[in-house]
Design goal:
Distance between the termini: 40 Å
Bound molecules: uridine-diphosphate-N-acetylglucosamine
Helix content: 25-40%
Number of helices: 10
Order of helices and strands: EHEEHEHHEHEEHEEEHEEHEHH
Largest sheet: 7 strands, parallel
Strand content: 15-25%
Number of strands: 13
């Protein structure tokens, strides 16, 4: 099969590309290299530097493709609060462009990277797909709009757009070098720089951190399953959540407590019953093992 990955030079996209290549598929990647890196790319993929906001430029890359993984986005909660215009453009309009190109080429399925941030503030845990969304940030809202477009386009056009709500994905190739890097990448960098690990709030907030290999597996199942309809949504996360304090202990070193971050839900926890029963998916890597693998990867490539 031939698959197109938007955002394929990024953390999740490049890990997915590697696995698809290993499984013998052809892979085409488009990425504008804002957060993606060329060095993440596996060998033997077709790579094109292109922005999903430029619909005419990306259109030709959809030709002859069997399925699309749409991962290109500005996936940063704090940045979306600072710049709701730019992030809405990329995360909403860019998504419409990708969906439209796939529809025009008659592609059967898109797997769309959605987010647990759609849930926002909820009174009840674990988080279930049919709960009323309550995003706390423009990023969460942008992903919710993406899901609704996915549902509508699946109903209107001959395409199936499946949405995976990722919960804090981590693992080798995670971003670590910007202020917006996800907490595990940021902690590894701070430790290697001999700086204290910055904990926002009291550190008791917890996340259903999910290891990259499990997320890649979910993507492939969502692309290949014959049991799903367009517009469907699946939680892809851990049932058990872990606190930022616990993560800091696993990484090791000094910590520094800072004021809480706005737009930050206190806890997440994924109910994955639907992914288990429909996709046959459940997370295989426990948190301690996954953090160790990520730590070893970081230290090998960038030092302790
Ligand atoms: C969010 C989304 C997730 C999305 C991801 C993309 C939620 C629940 N999750 O993750 O779906 O895919 O953004 O960017 O909205 N923290 C510290 N110190 C730091 C950095 C972070 O204490 O230096 C804390 C944060 O306050 C937060 C936790 O670590 O409580 C995780 O933060 P982060 O890694 O940035 O991801 P989320 O914002 O949870």
């Amino acid at each position: 099969m031939k698959y197109l990955i938007t955002g394929g030079a990024g953390f999740i996209g490049s890990n997915l590309a590697e696995k698809l290549k290993k499984d013998g598929h052809d892979v085409v990647i488009i990425d504008n290299l804002t957060t993606g890196r060329k060095k993440n790319l596996p060998l033997d993929v077709e790579f094109y530097e292109a922005d999903i906001l430029d619909i005419e430029k990306i259109r030709p890359f959809f030709s002859g493709v069997d399925g699309v993984f749409h991962l290109a986005a500005i996936p940063r909660v704090p940045l979306s609060i600072q710049d709701p215009v730019k992030t809405s453009n990329v995360n909403i309009m860019g998504t419409v462009n990708v969906f439209k190109c796939a529809i025009d080429e008659g592609i059967k399925r898109i797997v769309f990277a959605s987010s647990s941030s759609i849930y926002g503030g909820q009174k009840v845990l674990p988080l279930q797909e049919d709960m009323l969304p309550n995003p706390l940030s423009p990023y969460g809202l942008q992903k919710l709009v993406g899901e609704q477009i996915a549902k509508m386009f699946s109903d209107l056009y001959k395409i199936q757009i499946v949405c995976l709500r990722y919960f804090n994905v981590y693992g080798p190739k995670i971003d670590f070098d910007s202020d917006y890097s996800l907490v595990i990448g940021k902690f590894l960098r701070l430790k290697s720089q001999g700086k204290p690990l910055t904990i926002f709030g009291d550190g008791n907030q917890s996340r259903a951190f999910c290891f990259i290999e499990d997320v890649v597996d979910a993507n492939i199942r969502a692309m290949q399953s014959d049991k799903i309809k367009g517009g469907e949504v699946f939680n892809i996360g851990q049932k058990k959540s872990h606190s930022v304090n616990f993560l800091a202990k696993l990484i090791g070193g000094e910590v520094q407590y800072l004021p809480p971050r706005i737009g930050d839900p206190m806890h997440t926890q994924a109910d994955t019953t639907k992914a288990e029963s429909v996709l046959g998916w459940s997370p295989k890597t426990d948190f301690e093992t996954g953090v160790n693998i990520t730590k070893n990867w970081f230290e090998k490539n960038y030092g302790k």
